[in-house]
């Protein structure tokens, strides 16, 4: 592949992005495709340090704009160190979250505004947008219940937000999916992981070979 393929995965807390990505990588390998898996916030040493500040449960006083700026800073570092070099080498990059997370969480749920948050991130990403984004569509009540059942020891600051916050995030993602239909593909995250991966793999292969 001469040009890399940048694929991002989005959704609310507990929608299963990490699990789906792990299973997807194995399926892509069967097709002879290698993928670099990374995540946001984080993905590189400096970006992970910023992640720790953002998600620290002690930082409940963090201002929404401070939060948005920290995400953008982490994103920039991750992009420069991990994503762009891989794409330049023609690799497929699978990222657990990217710009759409900021638009949903800070832009809508925090009330800063989608355009305002997008403006902050324009400086950070320098026109690097995903080729393809998968929105794992799962109602927030179900996602939060998954968290309570399966990873109660890893609860972060965002997991502690009220249900109304997560509902705003969910509605924001649905809005973004309608706004960018050429890029964002909605996947029913209430299906089995195998079913989700099969649908996602089909779309990726069509895009890859297209």
Description:
The protein is of the alpha/beta class. The protein has helices at residues 17-30, 45-55, 64-88, 99-109, 114-125, 140-150, 163-179, 193-209, and strands at 5-10, 35-39, 92-96, 132-137, 184-188. The chain contains 8 helices and 5 strands, in the order E-H-E-H-H-E-H-H-E-H-H-E-H. It has a 5-stranded parallel sheet with strand order 2-3-1-4-5, sandwiched between helices. Helix 4 runs antiparallel to helix 5 (114-125) and helix 4 (99-109) crosses helix 7. The longest helix has 25 residues, at 64-88. It is globular and about 45 Å long. The termini are close together. The mean pLDDT is 94.
Secondary structure class reads: alpha/beta
Share in β-strands: 5-15%
What's the β-strand tally?
Answer: 5
Major beta sheet, strand line-up:
2-3-1-4-5
The best one-word shape is globular
| Straight-line distance between termini | 12 Å
The residue fraction in helices comes out at: 55-70%
The biggest sheet amounts to: 5 strands, parallel
Radius of gyration (CA) equals: 16 Å
Report low-confidence residues grouped into runs of 5 or more: none
Average of the residue pLDDT scores: 94
Number of helices: 8
Q: Element order, helices and strands?
A: EHEHHEHHEHHEH
Brief write-up:
56% of the residues lie in helices and 13% in strands.
Jot down its keywords.
210 residues, alpha/beta, 5-stranded parallel sheet, 8 helices, 5 strands, 56% helix
